Amino acid sequence: MITANFKRKHNKIFSFKISGHAGYKDPGYDIVCSAVSAISLSIANGITDILYIEPLINTGDGLLSLDLSHVSCDQIEKCQILLETMLLGIKTVENEYGKYIKVVEEEV
């Protein structure tokens, strides 16, 4: 199962961690994994390559995390449309394939 954790501070998303494997189909044929990967990587790339903000990013097998806790409040604000769009997209995948993905939101 994929777990998508989103952390907010003052109602602003400042980090996310996507971990695990969906297990919907074999690797290379797993549309749940593909959807989540495409959404999350596009948003991470948008933050770095379009907004020119440098988050802390960690990647690995079945892992993508992004943390903006070290950047300014103005930079976090600039990322909100992208991050809220990502959350909406991943929740849409969860609504259709909830057996394979879980979204967790946390206010810290």
Automatic annotation (TrEMBL):
InterPro entries: Peptidase_Prp, Peptidase_Prp_sf. GO terms for molecular function: cysteine-type peptidase activity. It comes from the Bacteria. One of its GO terms (cellular component) is ribosome. Signal peptide: none annotated. CDD domains: Prp-like (cd16332). Keywords: Hydrolase, Protease, Ribonucleoprotein, Ribosomal protein, Ribosome biogenesis, Thiol protease. Belongs to the Prp family. This is Ribosomal processing cysteine protease Prp. It comes from Hathewaya histolytica (Clostridium histolyticum).
